[in-house]
């Protein structure tokens, strides 16, 4: 008999570690999104680490701005950004306060509330595609900038929280280059995923955007 996932919230100390330790350890954890229509629970299957001012691929590489302010705050908070003028993406801040490292949540399996996620992801061909990619994940969970700065370690009435879940055995964790990252940051093998999991998004190298003529 398979044991049920542990529903204990992850403590702040979990996130108060180097980003390259936190990122693979997030695989198998449960992300709970409480919406007005009910909860959606996602099991994390793919993440990417971003190491702040030491990482050319990070939003915080050139220092603190109004956009990335949350990344410099306490670990365990949610950093949401808007990209390509149409999509939101969700990160979890980690490391010491002022350090600005974070983990991008790239993909997961909806284990509860799939019927709610489907109403937001009408183009998904099946439930495995509901949160297959960071923008799809945020869309399925109804995440936008209003949730930026949310404390995912808080107890009580909170729209987002992280539970212990069932950590993935290290033998099933894979890593490789981050998706869509250009320049010096493209060489870091800081994308982590669960081996052979059908909800993991495909790797895509960075392709420069062409300006419209």
Automatic annotation (TrEMBL):
<keyword id="KW-0378">Hydrolase</keyword>
<comment type="similarity">
    <text>Belongs to the DNA glycosylase MPG family.</text>
</comment>
<protein>
    <recommendedName>
        <fullName>Putative 3-methyladenine DNA glycosylase</fullName>
        <ecNumber>3.2.2.-</ecNumber>
    </recommendedName>
</protein>
<dbReference type="Pfam" id="PF02245">
    <property type="entry name" value="Pur_DNA_glyco"/>
</dbReference>
<keyword id="KW-0234">DNA repair</keyword>
<dbReference type="InterPro" id="IPR036995">
    <property type="entry name" value="MPG_sf"/>
</dbReference>
<keyword id="KW-0227">DNA damage</keyword>
<dbReference type="InterPro" id="IPR003180">
    <property type="entry name" value="MPG"/>
</dbReference>
<dbReference type="InterPro" id="IPR011034">
    <property type="entry name" value="Formyl_transferase-like_C_sf"/>
</dbReference>
<feature type="region of interest" description="Disordered">
    <location>
        <begin position="165"/>
        <end position="184"/>
    </location>
</feature>
